[in-house]
Amino acid sequence: MGIEGDYYKDCSDNVLMTSRGGNVYDRTFMEGFVRPGIGLENWTSRTNYPAWGIVPTGEKEMSFYVQRNYGQPTARLDRYSLRPDGFASVRAGYDGGVFTTKPLLFTGASLFINFSTSAAGSLRAALLNADGSPIPGHGWEESAEIIGNMVDLPVKWSGNADVSAFAGVPVRLSFQMKDADLFAIQFK
């Protein structure tokens, strides 16, 4: 059952915007990041406003706070926690999918990923030439099957994580994914 009347006209979602500094913001992700939630008390004026900033609350966690039940005796701040760099992901469902980057240049010796899979899910990574052809020894077949939930895991091909030979050369990354989220990639 939906809300009747005019309650919805003064209600808000939290949204995700990004900036590279300054006062220019990009709203690539148009969906609500935190919705008002169950209960009419969360669909009122000034409810669902985020409190100031994002706070590191552990080595593998960051938190933000959202105002709930504004102007009511039950008013409070609710804490939401996220993994570092966990605002958005490339996601594949149980049927699976493939994500391939545009050509990129990197520095560093190894590829690290921030990811999460279900118990039945997995990821495999491939390193491709800029034209999309596989780089021998760095295909999906040589990639270790990656499962779990980690913020900083090195990707290995045939047991080796070293990709420094390709640093400074245009390459693509391609990920076979099944019931998995890929939050971030980093070479270091």
Describe the overall structure.
- The chain is mostly beta strands.
- The chain has two domains: 1-82, no CATH class; 90-187, Hypothetical Protein Tm1070, Chain: A.
- Helix content is 0%, strand content 36%.
- It has strands at 55-58, 61-68, 76-82, 90-92, 97-100, 111-129, 149-154, 171-187.
- Strands 4, 5, 6, 7 and 8 form a five-stranded antiparallel β-sheet that branches.
- The protein is elongated.
- The mean pLDDT is 89.
Please name the defining characteristics of this protein.
single chain; 188 residues; mainly beta; Hypothetical Protein Tm1070, Chain: A; three-stranded antiparallel sheet; 0% helix; 36% strand
The CATH topology annotation of the largest domain reads as Hypothetical Protein Tm1070, Chain: A
Structural class: mainly beta
Sheet with most strands: 5 strands, antiparallel
* H-E order: EEEEEEEE
Beta fraction: 35-45%
What gyration radius follows from the Cα positions, in whole Å? 21 Å
| Uncertain stretches | none
Q: How helical, in percent, are the residues? A: under 10%
End-to-end separation in angstroms reads 51 Å
Number of helices: 0
Give the CA-based shape.
elongated
Name of the CATH first level of the largest domain = Mainly Beta
- CATH architecture term of the largest domain: Sandwich
Report the count of strand segments: 8
Structural domains: how many: 2
Q: What is the typical, i.e. mean, pLDDT? A: 89
List the helices and strands and how they pair.
Elements: E1 55-58, E2 61-68, E3 76-82, E4 90-92, E5 97-100, E6 111-129, E7 149-154, E8 171-187
Antiparallel strand pairs: 1-2, 2-3, 4-8, 5-8, 6-7, 6-8
